[in-house]
Amino acid sequence: MTTGWPALLSDGRVGLRPLRLRDAQSWRAVRLRNAEWLRPWEATSPSPSLEAAPTYAAMVRRLRAEARAGRSMPFVVTLDDELVGQLTVGGIAWGSLRVANIGYWVDQAVAGRGIMPTAVALATDHCFAIGLHRVEVNIRPQNVASRRVVEKLRFRTEGLRPAYLHIDGAWRDHLTFALNAEEVPQGVLARWKSARASSR
Predict the structure, then answer these.
(1) Domain residue spans in the chain?
(2) Cα gap 102→120, rounded to integer Å
(3) Where does the record place the N-acetyltransferase domain (predicted)?
């Protein structure tokens, strides 16, 4: 078993690398440009009056601490080395469970180009390579774009989790999608690339 962090992962023009403090300007610019597009899918606090929104620096420090503890892998998604999104492997548990979950967002300007399926495939393969057994993605049923990512990668649909996460100001239902390592012995990325090639 290894923490697998820090990690640099890539396939062609798409890359995953650790989130950095010096990404602040690029990260803020992409987030500001996509604020309305991302708002319906963003995690929120059920007690906003008691919890101030974290600064970018505070967010990075918290994610780094989680990464050092082996509970998280906070990546930025890059296209031609430019920041276009974020992907976080979180909820990492070892022992007899060996599970993680993946959350992600991408700049609307580059959505639909296969960037996020490639990023999720890279991250999932990395999780399996370091000894995790199961990877989950939890998505609001209404989030068609995010659902298309896991559908393209052939994650298994496992069912509905009622009022699972606090999103956009309320507790929201989520669909759970998952893969176990033995389901993709050739790797998720290889399967995804094969499916893309055969559809051309």
Answers:
(1) 9-198
(2) 8
(3) 14-182
